[in-house]
Amino acid sequence: MIWLAFFFGLLMLAPMLLPNNYYLTILILGCLHAMNAVGLCLLVGHAGQISLGHAGFYGLGAYTSSYLSTTVGLSVGLSMLSGVALTVVVSILVGLPSLKLKGHYLAMATLGFGIILSILFTETVDITGGPSGFVGIPRLSLFGWELRKDVTLYRAVAVTLCLIVWLAFNLLHSRVGRALRALHTSERAAEAMGVDIARYKLLVFVLSAAFSGIAGVLYAHYLTFIAPSSFGFMFSVELIVMVVLGGMTSVPGAIVGAFFITVLPEFLRAFENIEVLLFGAILVLCMMFLPDGMAGGWNRLWGWGKARFSGAVHG
Amino acid sequence: MDSVILGCSGVAVRFGGVQALADIHFEAERGQITAIIGPNGAGKTTLLNVISGMVTPSHGALTFEGRDITTLPAHKRAWGGMVRTFQNLEIFSNMTVLENVTMGCHGRLSLPAWHSLLRTPKSRRLENEVRREALDALEFVGMADLAQATAKDLAFGKQRLLELARALAARPKLLLLDEPAAGLNIAETQILADLILRIRDTYNLSVILVEHDMELVMRISDSILVLCFGQNISRGTPAQVQKDPKVIAAYLGGDED
Amino acid sequence: MDPSSLLQYLITGLTLGSTYGLTALGFTIIFNTTGVINFAQGEFVMLGGMMSVYFMHSLGFGEPAAVVLAVLGATLAGALVERLAIRPVRDCPAINLIIITIGVSILIRGLAMLLWGKDTHVLEPFSGNQPIMFLGAAIMPQAIWVLVISLFLLGALKLFFSGTIHGKAMLACSYDSKAASLVGIGVQRMVLLSFMISALVGAVGGVILAPITMTSYDVGIMLGLKGFAACILGGLGNPFGAAAGGVILGVLESLGAGFVSSAYKDALAFVILLILLFVKPSGLFGLKDSKRV
User: Fold this and answer.
1) Interatomic CA distance for residues A72 and A76, integer angstroms
2) What is the pLDDT of residue A22?
3) Does any CB of chain A come closer than 8 Å to the CB of residue C148?
4) Residue B257: what pLDDT?
5) CATH 2.60.34.10 fits domain B1-81+172-257
6) Rounded CA gap, B96 and B66, in Å?
7) Helix, strand, coil percent content, chain B, rounded in steps of 5
8) What phi and psi values does residue A187 have, to the nearest 5 degrees?
9) Residue ranges in chain C whose pLDDT is less than 70
10) Cβ-based contacts of C290 with chain B (< 8 Å)
11) Which of the residues C28, C34, C104, C106 would you substitute to probe the A interface, choosing the one with the greatest number of A C-beta atoms within 10 Å?
């Protein structure tokens, strides 16, 4: 918990260390990506499932809130809540039949679902504005107070991220987290101890979808413009890359992975078109040589450092 | 209170072309230790899997405390008080000994998930209660000092005790033991036998055990069910079963006519 | 609805479906030999078309040579994928393998994007553009090439698996790899062979379809997914089912595009896939799994 407080402090101080507002955009996007990644980390690393369509939930939240706050005319707050609520409902409907599937069947089902949503976002032009996007989304506002300044909006986003991380942490250190670890090791034994495996898998799936939905509504009302290309298969893959890079079971790793992947394109500006190649390479190399991701690498470095230090002290 | 805790009637199991169990009828009495024995391939573990809900029978019915549980999912049987151990140890190897045993309490001491999500005071009190119960179970089997050890680092005999402690933490009404003595030497088996008797008396529960070790079975069982090639060939007290010519033939091979 | 339109859609469907079927066959061959679903299968299809375009337009080869080189190139890619990405991690948990093959798929796509850009390309049809009129429907000569080559390839594969020693060895590996290696079958070589054959089959599918549907660096993913849907439709593991599933899917998609809406035609394949996965994962011709506890 201590590091969470430290992380929160870091996030709050960050804007003061940045030279200009452009970097604030990166920070905000990084936080939003991290929200997605934390949820996916719970799903992949702890519940042992896979979802190749999580961008769909991100987009569902974004488009629903956009539609409700413009065409339907609801308040921003109500639209955002509804956006998250719809995402949760859809995730339950999709999760119930999907989570009975295993391995590549589940991967394909989530992939198919993500692509269907992507096609829907592109083709239902009357609702979503089609491939050219949805314009005129109202800016994020809390209880009628519009967050005009980017810095204020960033702080709201950062607080939300910390809240989500807090929830994730609580879950992992609770009896639910224990049950997840148990069913990861031995589903039979977990079942014999009374763990309702189907229910827990659904719980984590829905929770991760909710986190993506929350990120989605914030994204829409921050950017005030959204397009279907942001919520397609490539983004689902980016999310997987973030989680794999961070270390599939590590929530802090997922956050670091998210920020890393968000910042990476900035460094690759000089090399056009290399992003896709790089993501593929990261996935393959990580899974082959560094399956625990950066978190695993960090743990090993820490352990090595401790051994050296205690060696120096005793030796 | 009904004296029968578990009833099997007409249970049959088919795996593809193999008839693993055929027409099994038996009842386990409350408070007794019922053993299921038979030569290899007799279907003993399959029967235990049917009872615990890991395998669905193709025919027949199962009752637990008088209620029909034939189609009840395995985890719900655990909630109802039926807990099992496994022949090939299924401990949670990456968790500590204490965490393993607390999993035993999972079905019994539970709260809706949102308590865990928000870390409510209620959830913290529950955690403390679960911890206490787990430690009690560990003390009963004599492993309280190993609470913080990682499960996969334990010696085999201790891992067996761990599975037992985990099952005890669930305060079951019916304990299903799948070859608990497998891999134990004579001394360890003796300790196990005493432990099972002590468990039955202290926790006031019923036991069904599948076992190969005849000494253990004859010493602690109140009733024995003998299976051979998926069929029930004998039932009775240890004394009766020992003298049954059908049982002797099944184990030693009958005369070729 | 006039019969000539229906015939038109059917022919389009059969043409498309042949490529889905060949892609599905590629999935099936690798799955049968290794139990792995190779997410990169669609990229082999893409490589077939794109490499043909490259050899012909950029390097100036004649079309027959370009096509042959492209298929060989894709087959080589398949071998490389197996050697470099799959063989080292054969015993990984399933989820790792899934992520690796996804990574490979993206890697190949990224390379294609880097080498050949994002444009769509047209490959010249094998024997010209003059449509043949048949019962009121206009059939492109390329469509006939697609059907003929697909059938030929199917026949060749059937002969390979039931007639040659290598083919039978691969089948043996799919039934029980331990037993297969005990009788002297080099399982690793069979796995390599399976990847190469799958890549070849996929690439042929890509090459013959490219003149009709155009090709670009990112056609792989849709084709791969639809190929997988065809696999599931026909019953995973059943080569006949894969081919049939592909054809059925192609025809359904074409009819859907023609009579309902062409914008959502891609979604149709995935809706079918989802319904299948939820309701009958064993597909039309698949066998039910009987599991041992």
Assistant:
1) 11
2) 82
3) no
4) 42
5) no
6) 37
7) 40, 25, 35
8) -60, -35
9) 1, 177, 286-293
10) 15-16
11) C106
Q: How confident is the model at residue A312 (pLDDT cuts 50, 70, 90)?
A: low
CATH (residue range C3-279): 1.10.3470
Going from N- to C-terminal start, the domains of chain B cover 1-81+172-257, 94-169
Residues B78-90, mean pLDDT to the nearest whole number: 91
Spatial distance between the Cα atoms of A49 and C91, rounded to a whole number of angstroms: 19
β-pairing, B206-210 vs B174-178, is parallel
CB contact under 8 A, B117 and A170: yes
Q: How many whole angstroms from its chain centre is CA A123?
A: 25
- Cβ–Cβ under 8 Å, residues A221 and A82: no
Class of domain A2-314: mainly alpha
Q: What percentage of chain C has pLDDT greater than the value 70?
A: 96
Is B103–A190 a contact, with Cβ atoms under 8 angstroms apart? Answer: yes
Residues in B closer than 8 angstroms to A190, CB to CB, are: 103
| pLDDT (tens digit per residue) in A39-85 | 999 999 998 888 999 999 999 999 999 999 998 888 888 999 999 99
What percent of chain A shows pLDDT beyond 70? 98
Mean pLDDT value across residues B59-77: 92
- For chain C, the structural domain boundaries read 3-279
Q: Please state the ipTM of this predicted complex.
A: 0.86
Could you report the per-residue pLDDT of B2-43, keeping only the tens digit for each? Answer: 788 999 999 999 887 888 898 899 899 999 999 999 888 788
| Boundaries of every domain in chain A | 2-314
- How many angstroms separate the CA atoms of A273 and B60, rounded? 64
Q: Which residues pair with C215 in a beta bridge?
A: C121
Interface test with C, best of A288, A290, A292 (most C CBs within 10 A): A288
CB contact under 8 A, B108 and A194: yes
Tokens of A259: 């920020």
Average pLDDT over residues A165-186: 91
Report how far Cα C10 is from the mean position of its chain's Cα atoms.
20
Q: What is the pLDDT of residues A185-212, one digit of tens each?
A: 888 999 999 999 999 999 999 999 999 9
Cα A267 versus chain centre, distance: 22
**Chain C partners of A104 at a C-beta cutoff of 8 Å?**
37, 94, 98
Distance of CA B223 to the CA centre of its chain: 15
Specify the residue for token string 């006519």.
B257
Cα-based angle A228, A207, B120 (whole degrees, multiple of 5): 145
C290 closest CB neighbour out of B16, B49, B54: B16
Rounded CA-CA distance A181/A194 in Å is 14
Q: What is the pTM of this model?
A: 0.89
Mean pLDDT, rounded, for B48-75: 92
Chain A hits for C225, CB-CB cut-off 8 Å, are 108, 111-112, 115
> If you measure CA to CA, which chain C residue comes closest to A95?
C278
